[in-house]
Amino acid sequence: MKRNKLLTKRDALFIILILAIGLSVWGVYQWRSGDDGRLVTAEIRSDYGTHIVNLDEDRTFYIIPNVIFEIRDGQIAFVKSDCPDQVCVRTGFIGRAGQSAACLPNRLILSLSAADDYDNLDIYVR
Known about the structure:
Layout: H1 9-32, E1 40-46, E2 49-54, E3 59-62, E4 67-72, E5 75-81, H2 87-91, E6 100-103, E7 108-114
Antiparallel strand pairs: 1-2, 1-7, 3-4, 4-5, 6-7
């Protein structure tokens, strides 16, 4: 009596090959999405205007009294907010160019960009 195998050697090899390709693609993406040593700045937009903040010095500050930001080790986070859902606080620290976080009830948008990204723009509207 012949048993049917659930997984043959050929199936296992195919699965390993697919996993290797997937990990390779993920690794290349992670490597290419680095900041290349460029200084990352935070842009905080609110009803009070746009504020550009460098992430090179650890500190705690606020733009509006009920929302507190913290900069630590080149990353920034909403650490305290009076909004009901706390999504902005749960986002945690962000530190790579292209990342963003928002506190919609307080109308604050935090986005990170490399310091020299502004040199490549044709127009910047506030």
